[in-house]
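Recall the central idea of this unit: under ordinary conditions, the amino acid sequence of a chain determines the structure it adopts. In this exercise we apply that idea directly, starting from the sequence alone.
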Amino acid sequence: MKIREVLRLQVEGLSHRQIALSVSCARTTVQEILRRARAAGITWPLPDELDEVALRSKLYPSQCAKESAALRPKPDFAQVLQELSRKHVTRRQLWREYLARYPQGYRYTSFCVQLLQWRKSVGADVTMTIVHEPGEKLYVDYSGDPAYYIDRHTGERMAAQLFIAAWGFSHKLYVEATATQTTQDWLTAHVHAFTFYGCLPKAVVPDNTKAAVIKACYYDPDKNREYTNLGEHYDLAILPTRSRKPRDKSKIENGVLIAQRRVLGALRDALFFSLAELNEAIRRIVDEINAEPFQKRNGTRNALFEQYERPAARPLPARPYEYARWREALVHPDHHVQADKGFYSVHFTLIGQKVWVRIGARVVEIFQHGKVIAAHQRVQRPWQRRTIHAHRPPAHRAYLELDYGKLLDRAQRIGTNTAAVVVKQALNKRHLDETIRGALGILRLAEDFNPEALERACAVALSLGLFNYRAVRDLLRQGGCPAPQAASASAGLMHENVRGTDYFCTETTPPEDCPP
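Accordingly, the structure predicted from this sequence is:
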């Protein structure tokens, strides 16, 4: 600009001394500029195509030649930028490699300046302002620096992680100290944040922490299953940011900076003896932050939230989300799956198949192919079983549905003598299972022989005072029951250890009273 002004004032008729005073330079400098202009054939007014760079190169060709790419070859800045994205690679290391190839190249400072200029020329450092709509997004993250409290039982200094949430439009903050950064603490902090705000955004924007994303991918991230379940419960979209792109979540980065300076700075010398005491102190500081006026914006975080954010946000569901863990399980041969020292039934047709178990605080749900196939209340003691009767095989259900009343009804349909034997044998049993087994044995004889024969055998058994399964079975195996009067005469000799007439019958010398 000074060169152009010197050329213009010289045409206006000013002396060299007057021009020097006007442009704030030495008179000899004015003389040198005019001499070089005459040598280059440059006069005022300058042509439109002659910009400042071209004007300087015409007046000072030797100086520009020294700075030309022939003497100082420029690095491949596209390759430099790509290499800088790799881990452990620095600008100084790339400059050393560049200087090894071109010993007459740029010094380190010039190398960095040239790189910065190149980045600006290709738009690598151009930032885009994101317009945040009210009620649209809630940004969440953990602070890298922890807060501390003292374990009152051990006296140990414990580190607590700071969970921070901030709305995109109003930037209203929520800060909570959690014991760890595990999935359970991460999801619980989300639920507390939603309760604190009293409403829900349309989307949550987390970092690529393992509690949120198993495998980072901008287009299709592999999200944590528990985190996805929370999003389904609240009908939220989960939008993880790009890896190593902090500008994608500048709102929460700013919130983290505020929390570190205001919360950690204010509590640096305070002593707390529980996580609850620490969170109570944090809540007071966060309330002050949300109530303070903005420095470069009208209003406060609370005012903008109530005026714009809350009306556009969605209401909370009737039941808050409860943390649950997922695990894959194999259905055992007894059609139960094991989960946290408890056994829970599924339908018997799923034996040997793999299912997913969602273990909640009070309920255990079992899924297959994304659908709920069973739901149980959690066991109250270790190794307890929860079984739904409809999950059992038909034979198991029939066995468990047996009771003495039903068996007695079956015996009465056969005959009064059969029912009397069932009642008599029940009086000699000490346990219900014994009674049911004995009754089942007697009723089974109706299938092995026939109901009429069983009724006759039971009549004989009653006259003999025999009321057990073996006695009735032996009477039926004899192929015919003796008359009641004959039976009464030998009642004292009839018991299960007597061999009977069949034992003494032979093919060669059959006795006269041997049955045919």
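The first strand starts at residue 137 and ends at 142.
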